[in-house]
Design goal:
By secondary structure, this protein is an alpha+beta fold. The chain has a single domain, classed as 2-Layer Sandwich (Alpha-Beta Plaits), CATH 3.30.70. The protein contains 11 helices and 10 strands. The chain has a 4-stranded mixed sheet. A two-stranded antiparallel ribbon has the order 2-3. It has a two-stranded antiparallel sheet with strand order 4-5. A hairpin with a 2-residue loop joins strand 2 (107-115) and strand 3 (118-126). The longest helix has 31 residues, at 292-322. The protein is globular and about 55 Å long. The structure holds iron/sulfur cluster (3 copies). Residues 58-59, 63, 105-106, 127, 200-203, 213-215 line the site of one iron/sulfur cluster.
Length: 324
């Protein structure tokens, strides 16, 4: 099934481009990526969302194979007070769908209120924004987060040490940690990281095969479109003008590859939603990588990231060898 509003040709062109270059852009190269017009970008028209959660279910189904499976007791971390175990693997926690977790990369946020004397009730699909200049990529000390050549931002599970720096520096605190899995168990089980961070990877593997992300394909209301960024941003602005509405994501955090259009100002929506862990805000957001301290930090961590990257690749190879 394919949404009629998607520019299929453009989408396939971008998707197959990625398939040919599954190679990842090395951190902090993404900090200097200049051209984003052809990045894959989604437009989310929130007035169409009926909160059926078909997209949430589809995301969980297709990404089930990527979900963490902790095998043993969680190691006691040092220092215990600072490094908390975050275990979402028990069944009742895996089933949580009203926030972001390592097992739930997309959820529907609800907003009710009044604007211009009229009441509104809106549902907002929330997940990673896939930023153009993502602090999660530039500031990961282990180089585990990457921007693919089509703009998709991915956390590499074999390289992630679970230190949650990406969550701390992400303006929306999107990535979520599962303890008891990952590279840190092999090298510093008690002293480093504490698991692996998980978030929407825009179904990069489906996209590489020329397929749509599952949440877009399954939506009965055609809430999301995907296509080249320039086209999606222009379309979002036109739509906003038609409905006297508002755009979010075109410039927030320096620009993202997720553009929301709403009939209600995002400041009003932000007041109407529940905000907290796994429940991101909708505030206007300045470009977090424009801070000179962050730019310097991104440059300083690059060599360490390279070493950890090599360790992660060795670990993967040795596991593949064990499986032979
Ligand atoms: S929204 Fe957060 S996790 Fe997603 S790309 Fe941006 S900084 Fe990274
Ligand atoms: S793009 Fe894929 S991983 Fe991201 S929310 Fe949609 S279904 Fe989930
Ligand atoms: S499938 Fe579509 S209509 Fe249903 S909750 Fe998701 S975005 Fe909204």
């Amino acid at each position: 099934m394919t949404s009629k509003r998607i520019s299929r040709r453009s989408f396939l062109k971008a998707g197959m481009g990625a398939a040919g270059t599954v190679a990842l852009a090395a951190s902090p190269v993404s900090a200097t990526r200049k051209q984003h017009n052809e990045d894959l970008c989604t437009l989310i028209d929130i007035q169409k969302c009926v909160a059926c959660e078909a997209c949430v279910d589809a995301c969980r189904d297709v990404n089930d194979v990527k979900f963490p499976e902790p095998e043993g007791p969680m190691p006691n971390m040092f220092p215990r007070k600072k490094v908390r175990v975050e275990d979402w693997s028990p069944e009742e926690k895996r089933d949580v769908t009203d926030r972001l977790t390592p097992y739930n990369w997309l959820f529907i946020q609800h907003a009710e209120g009044t604007y211009n004397g009229k009441s509104f009730e809106l549902a907002i699909p929330r997940r990673c924004m896939h930023c153009l200049n993502p602090p999660c990529v530039n500031l990961c000390p282990f180089g585990a987060a990457h921007t693919l050549s089509n703009g998709i931002v991915r956390i590499h599970q074999d390289l992630c040490m679970g230190g949650a720096k990406c969550r701390a520096v992400c303006p929306w605190h999107i990535p979520q940690r599962q303890s008891g899995v990952g590279l840190h168990l092999d090298i510093l089980p008690q002293y480093a990281g504490n698991g692996v961070m998980f978030k929407c990877d825009r179904c990069y593997d489906r996209v590489a095969e020329g397929e749509l992300p599952a949440c877009i394909e399954v939506c009965p209301e055609g809430v999301q479109e995907i296509g080249p960024r320039k086209e999606m941003v222009e379309k979002a602005r036109r739509l906003a003008t038609q409905i006297n509405g508002f755009v979010y994501g075109a410039d927030d955090n320096g620009g993202t590859n997720t553009i929301y259009v709403s009939p209600v100002p995002f400041g009003v929506l932000n007041e109407a939603i529940v905000i907290g862990p796994g429940n991101p805000h909708l505030k206007r957001t300045a470009d977090s990588m424009a801070d000179p301290n962050r730019m310097l930090a991104a440059l300083a961590i690059a060599p360490v990231a390279g070493v950890i990257g090599a360790l992660g690749r060795l670990r993967k190879l040795s596991r593949q060898g064990e499986g032979n």
